[in-house]
Each structure stands twice: as C-alpha cells, then as structure tokens.
Automatic annotation (TrEMBL):
Name recorded for this polypeptide: DUF2550 family protein
Keywords (A to Z) from UniProt: Membrane, Transmembrane, Transmembrane helix
Family matches, as Pfam families: DUF2550 (PF10739)
Membrane spanning residue stretches: 6-25
Amino acid sequence: MRTSAPIIALVIGALVVLATLALVARQVHVSRMRGVFDCVLWRRGVRGREGWQQGLMRFTSQELQWFRALSWRIRPERRIGRCDILGEQRSVIGEKTPGGEDYVLVELTLRQGARVRVIMARSAASALNAWLESAPMGLVIGDAD
C-alpha cells in the first residue's frame, strides 16, 4: 500500500492543530483559576543558565504556585509555601505601562536562605503583601503567638 503525500501532510497538519489547541486550552485553564496574576520569575534553567521566564502565579491558602507560560504541564513548576517565606523586599522598576501601572521587583527570602525574585504589577505586589500578612497566627516563623 502506498500513501500519498497529501494524506501525510493532512495528518501532520491535524496533529499540529490539535497540539496548538491543547496548549491554548491549558493556558486558558490556568489563567482562569482564582488568584492568578501575570508575573516574570528569575529561575535557573536545566543546563545551569539563568534568566527571566514569563508565567502566571497563583495564591492558594498555603502556597504560591508558579506556572510557566506556554508549557504543557498542568501542575505548577514552582511552589513556595507560605510558612517558608521569611520576608519580602520591593522596589519599583521601569516606567508606567500604557495601562498606567508600575511594575515591581519583589524578592522573597525563604527559610532555607534561598531568594526568589519576581517582577509583577504593583497591584499584584500589594495583593501578595496582603496574602502574606493574612497568614494565620503561628504559621509564619517569628509570629508572636
């Protein structure tokens, strides 16, 4: 049996369309979760290279979850427990966007001594600060209870 080139091209095209639809569906699914905002995270790559990666961060009751943009993974690639965050520092970077919002570099200090750097909108940084301050008593290291 011989298959013709148009049939093979049609099958390959259909697979590309299905893969694209799956990627878009994953992005829509993640972006519609509660507590999700756009951010850029500084991370080390697989081969030791470092750089900024675009993604979405989500607040849950006990952790921050970071999802890389345009990824096949449904689960978050980075999880930061609320009880692991010791402190945060913020600094405004750049100028206002066309939408009129500043961007903020937030550096989270973790219990293990690691630091997580995230660039996000000022409104998202304020929400992050409120999330950190709203932790139940005793959950955060150094609480007075």
